[in-house]
Every structure is written in structure tokens, then in C-alpha cells.
UniProtKB/TrEMBL annotation:
Keywords (A to Z) from UniProt: Decarboxylase, Lyase, Metal-binding, Zinc
GO annotation, cellular component aspect: cytosol
Catalytic activity entry: 6-methylsalicylate + H(+) = 3-methylphenol + CO2
Top-level division of the source organism's lineage: Eukaryota
Species in which this protein is naturally found: Pseudopithomyces chartarum
PANTHER family associated with the record: 2-AMINO-3-CARBOXYLMUCONATE-6-SEMIALDEHYDE DECARBOXYLASE, AMIDOHYDROLASE-RELATED DOMAIN-CONTAINING PROTEIN
Protein name in UniProt: 6-methylsalicylate decarboxylase
Gene Ontology terms describing biological process: secondary metabolic process
Enzyme Commission number, as recorded: 4.1.1.52
Keyword Acyltransferase: no
Length: 352
């Protein structure tokens, strides 16, 4: 049976200049993976045809555009601008096939504010923020002005995991990898870092303060779902710890968060009984099908693997949802996310 038509919200691009920058800065094995994946416009259009992806929203994956802790700000700013301009060009050339989540040159806040405005002018569909920038996690107060501006715009923020990192007392940063280089970071550290970032967004009050931001979480939320009860209840059970309203968190997850299905969200080779990560999310935490969207993670998930996972997803979704719900997961929810959250522009401080 043919795969259903779909919109891909978790899809990456690696233009030649970005690949060169990765190699020049010691990222020939990004996050411990065997190699930088090959990418071209032609290969992306090919996977879109094979997997029946009618539109792909492109983003720069980890390690983002700040490729070295000692890189001068100008290098990060320039690379960010190149990447966003390249993605904007693809969208202009193929408006029905591509969109993009713009990158920001964080942790350089003033430059990021300038880049937000340029990306909006170029037609960005939203913004891709990494879980942390050299050990400063999104939700940190130093990024408040960024989130306030994105809130003004009514932006979608696609949260993408990166290597966990911690600040040092001397102002530097170090990777936070207990197993060092034994395992590639994406196997499980990505899922933990996604949870760290989102929990910090809640505890910092960022989610409460920025009511007009919509969040898109990858990999069916990573390990966030089983931590929900713990981090929302902990403060009420342990004196002196920060309290958070569990009911309010659940409401915000239901109303302002989407979860993409990139990765191994179904158990087994065929996904025929619907078991696995997604089932735990939707059944265990009552997440509606209306908050689920498709993601391929191409090209970090290679062409053949992306098709294998797409077929497994087809079988798994058929076990969990009816046809109308599946159409929403594959296309309708993404269309609502993209069309319902077009970036607002401001003129003289007023929204237009």
C-alpha cells in the first residue's frame, strides 16, 4: 500500500558552505555519529517523492551555527545569515514544497534579535532553537528578550536537541556526557536534553509569560512524558522546592505544544500493534491526535531508513487512530500549525 501524503516538520538541510564549516570546526562526526550525512536539493526532493512528502519545513540541525565555543561572534552571525538566506531562497524557488524554521546566532542575543527581523522579512515559518547554547538552556533569563520578541510575533519555536552541556565556574563550558564518547549523542542524550530544556521553560515561567508562542517538540517529546508527573508534583511534596501547577502544565501542553513523530516512535520491525513511545505518550498522558505531526529527520535519518520508519509509522498509526485522525496527523495538524501561526510583523510597535 502506498504511503499517505504528509507534511514533514522535522527535516534538515546541509548546504555546501555549512558542511565545509562543520569540517573546519572539528564536526566531521557530528555528535558522535559516523559521518556528516550527504545532502543536496535533489536528494531531498527524491525522499519527498518516495515518502509522499508534499512539503518539508527545513532547519539546521545540531550543532547549529555556533560551531566552536571560542568562535568569534562574527563567524556565528555570518553562518546563521548564510543558512537562513539559503533556506529562504529554497522557499522562494519552491513555495509549495519548502518552508523553514530559521536559526538564530545564539548565545549572541543582540545579533539574534537582528536576525529575527531579517528572517521574518524573508518568510520564515518559525524558528529552530537548540535545547542549549554552550550550557545556557532555553528558559534562562539571558534569553528572555528573545522569547519576548518571538512572543510578539506569535512564533512557532521548533525545539531541537543538541549535546548536553554545562557551564563551568571559569565561564567556560564542557560537554555533559557521563559516558564520554562511548555512545553517539542522539541515541539517548538528545531525548534527555529535550526534557531538560522544556522543564526549564516551565520552571522559569517562560511558557506562562509567552502566551503567544507555540512549541514544537521533536521525537514525541523525548523523555518528557514520564517526567511530567514528577516535575509538576515535586514541589508540592518536598518543602522548599519550587512549585508548579500540574493542571496548568497539562493545559499548556494540550493547547500550545505539538509533538513530531521523528525517530523510533513505534516498537518492533513492523509497528503492527502500535506499541512503543507514541502509545505511551497518547495513552499514558492523554495527548490528543491533534497535537501530533510527521517528521522524517532526513538526512540524518537516511533515505532507506526514513522509508522503513514511514512504513512502520503507517502500520502503528492505523492501530491507534482512525482514518480521519491519521489524515490530521500526516497533514491537517501541520497545516493548522503553519497557517494558523503566521509570523506577525510589527510597525512602530504595533502589530500588523
Amino acid at each position: 500500500m502506498a504511503l499517505p501524503s504528509r507534511i514533514d516538520v522535522h527535516s534538515h538541510y546541509l548546504p555546501p558552505f555549512y558542511r565545509d564549516a562543520l569540517l573546519a570546526n572539528g564536526h566531521e562526526k557530528v555528535d558522535g555519529m559516523p559521518a556528516i550525512p550527504e545532502w543536496s536539493l535533489e536528494s531531498h526532493l527524491k525522499i519527498m517523492e518516495s515518502a509522499r512528502i508534499k512539503k518539508a519545513i527545513l532547519s539546521i540541525s545540531t550543532p547549529g551555527t555556533n560551531l566552536h565555543p571560542n568562535a568569534p561572534p562574527s563567524a556565528t552571525i555570518s553562518l546563521t545569515r548564510q543558512c537562513n538566506a539559503y533556506a529562504a531562497g529554497l522557499k522562494k524557488m519552491y513555495p509549495d514544497r519548502f518552508g523553514f524554521w530559521a536559526s538564530l546566532p545564539l548565545p549572541h542575543v543582540d545579533a539574534a534579535l537582528e536576525e529575527i527581523e531579517k528572517a521574518v522579512e524573508e518568510g520564515a515559518d518559525g524558528f529552530c532553537l537548540l535545547t542549549n547554547y554552550q550550557g545556557d538552556y532555553i528558559g534562562d533569563e539571558k534569553f528572555d528578550v528573545i522569547f519576548d520578541r518571538l512572543n510578539d510575533l506569535g512564533a512557532v519555536i521548533f525545539v531541537h536537541p543538541t549535546q548536553p552541556c554545562m557551564q563551568c565556574s571559569d565561564g567556560g563550558e564542557n560537554p555533559a556526557l557521563p559516558f564520554r564518547n562511548k555512545y553517539p549523542v542522539p541515541i539517548f542524550e538528545f531525548l534527555f536534553d529535550s526534557a531538560r530544556a522544556v522543564i526549564n521553560l516551565f520552571f522559569s515561567g517562560t511558557v506562562d509569560r509567552c502566551q503567544d508562542i507555540t512549541f514544537l517538540l521533536p521525537h514525541a517529546g523525548g523523555v518528557l512524558p514520564p517526567l511530567l508527573t514528577r516535575f509538576t508534583a515535586f514541589g508540592a511534596l518536598v518543602p522548599g522546592c519550587q512549585e508548579i501547577d500540574p493542571k496548568r502544565v497539562r493545559e499548556q501542553l494540550a493547547e500550545r505544544f505539538y509533538f513530531d513523530l521523528a525517530g523510533t516512535t513505534f516498537e518492533g520491525d513492523e509497528g503492527v500493534d502500535g506499541s512503543g513511545q507514541l502509545k505511551a505518550l497518547v495513552k499514558g498522558f492523554d495527548i490528543s491526535h491533534e497535537r501530533l505531526v510527521y517528521g522524517s529527520d532526513f538526512p540524518f535519518t537516511r533515505h532507506t531508513s526514513a522509508l522503513t520508519l514511514a512504513n512502520r509509522m503507517k502500520a502503528g498509526l492505523e492501530c491507534l487512530f482512525d482514518e480521519e485522525e491519521r489524515v490530521a496527523i500526516y497533514e491537517g495538524n501541520a497545516e493548522k500549525l503553519l497557517n494558523g501561526k503566521r509570523l506577525r510583523r510589527q510597525t512602530n510597535g504595533k502589530r500588523s
